Automatic annotation (TrEMBL):
<dbReference type="GO" id="GO:0016853">
    <property type="term" value="F:isomerase activity"/>
</dbReference>
<dbReference type="InterPro" id="IPR014748">
    <property type="entry name" value="Enoyl-CoA_hydra_C"/>
</dbReference>
<comment type="pathway">
    <text>Lipid metabolism; butanoate metabolism.</text>
</comment>
<keyword id="KW-0413">Isomerase</keyword>
<keyword id="KW-0456">Lyase</keyword>
<protein>
    <recommendedName>
        <fullName>short-chain-enoyl-CoA hydratase</fullName>
        <ecNumber>4.2.1.150</ecNumber>
    </recommendedName>
</protein>
<dbReference type="InterPro" id="IPR018376">
    <property type="entry name" value="Enoyl-CoA_hyd/isom_CS"/>
</dbReference>
<dbReference type="GO" id="GO:0006635">
    <property type="term" value="P:fatty acid beta-oxidation"/>
</dbReference>
<dbReference type="GO" id="GO:0018812">
    <property type="term" value="F:3-hydroxyacyl-CoA dehydratase activity"/>
</dbReference>
<dbReference type="InterPro" id="IPR029045">
    <property type="entry name" value="ClpP/crotonase-like_dom_sf"/>
</dbReference>
<comment type="similarity">
    <text>Belongs to the enoyl-CoA hydratase/isomerase family.</text>
</comment>
<dbReference type="Pfam" id="PF00378">
    <property type="entry name" value="ECH_1"/>
</dbReference>
<dbReference type="InterPro" id="IPR001753">
    <property type="entry name" value="Enoyl-CoA_hydra/iso"/>
</dbReference>
<comment type="subunit">
    <text>Homotetramer.</text>
</comment>
């Protein structure tokens, strides 16, 4: 891989987009490599949480690669959007929890890939925005769909139509960032959050993730039905017995087996 690195430790995969000279802009090669890494991770049993970040101290991802898009045809633009849609859907729906460690600019496709993650933790210097309309295009990596779902229709329209860049605190205020931490502590904070998530029943966490994602894409009655089915399924697990027995025995340590 030329533009993406992967390291795995303590059941946590850190995926780093590594094109610092162009502020980690997403070109087609990087999108394809991310797709491969996500396909690999979604099948792995030894990874429970994926942390996605950008290399360097300035940018998470400054967007899709403008130098690649400038001469692209409509068909090529559409292909790029579809390539991103496929790999971002893997990120969004993999059974593992995904955390975007937003270490700087998260613009355009950068903001969009962070929104395909379950949780966004921003460093104090992070900046979010959807500057596409200023380039004569529109958000094409999911921004018109995921941003309103996260921050509401009015705020999403304002951000997309004005192309305003917002800082980490404002992103936190509107619910785009879950948390803001000093840049030097960002990865450690995300790893601690990962460890806390992993200490719970991972199969239950992945069922809860599927219920939330499925429910937000459907009507309330269907979402509640999915939840009831998933809830019933969790009663068949070793972890349900172990988690509840530990509570009744007033035992803090739980020996979850993730099934
Ligand atoms: C290609 C990029 C890039 C990008 C930065 N660079 N962003 N190259 N695509 N998205 C390159 C610059 O050209 C420059 O290369 C180097 O990275 C450093 O960037 P500077 O502009 O010199 O840094 P600075 O002045 O600090 O400004 C940082 C910045 C600015 C505010 C983040 O780079 C910027 O506005 N970038 C573009 C952001 C953007 O519009 N993103 C949305 C893209 S469209 P050189 O060679 O000069 O050193 C998109 C659409 C998604 O994402 C959907 C598509 C289907």
């Amino acid at each position: 891989m030329n533009n993406v690195t992967l390291s795995i430790e303590n059941e946590v995969a850190v995926v780093t987009i590594d094109r610092p000279k162009s502020l980690n802009a997403l070109n087609s090669e990087t999108l394809a490599e991310l797709g491969e890494v996500f396909s690999d991770i979604e099948k792995r049993k030894d990874v429970k949480v994926l942390i996605l970040t950008g290399s360097g101290e300035k940018a998470f991802v400054a967007g899709a690669d403008i130098s690649e898009m400038v001469n692209a045809s409509p068909a090529e633009g559409r292909t790029m959007a579809l390539l991103a849609a496929e790999s971002f859907a893997k990120l969004e729906n993999m059974p593992q929890v995904t955390i975007a460690a937003v270490n700087g600019f998260a613009l355009g496709g950068g903001c969009e890939i962070s929104m395909a993650c379950d949780i966004r933790v921003a460093s104090e210097n992070a900046k979010f925005g959807q500057p596409e309309c200023g380039l004569g295009i529109l958000p094409g990596f999911g921004g018109t769909q995921r941003l309103p779902r996260l921050v509401g229709k009015g705020r999403a329209k304002e951000l997309i139509f004005t192309c305003d860049m917002i800082d980490a605190q404002e992103a936190y205020r509107i619910g785009l960032a879950n948390k803001v931490v000093p840049q030097a502590e960002l990865l450690d904070y995300c790893k601690k959050m990962a460890a806390k998530i992993i200490s719970n029943g991972s199969y239950a966490v992945s069922l809860a993730k599927a219920a939330i994602n499925t429910g937000l894409d459907t009507d309330l009655a269907s979402g509640l039905k999915f939840e009831a089915d998933a809830f019933g399924l969790s009663f068949s697990t070793y972890d349900k017995k172990e988690g509840m027995t530990a509570f009744l025995e007033k035992r803090k340590e739980k020996n979850f087996k993730d099934f």
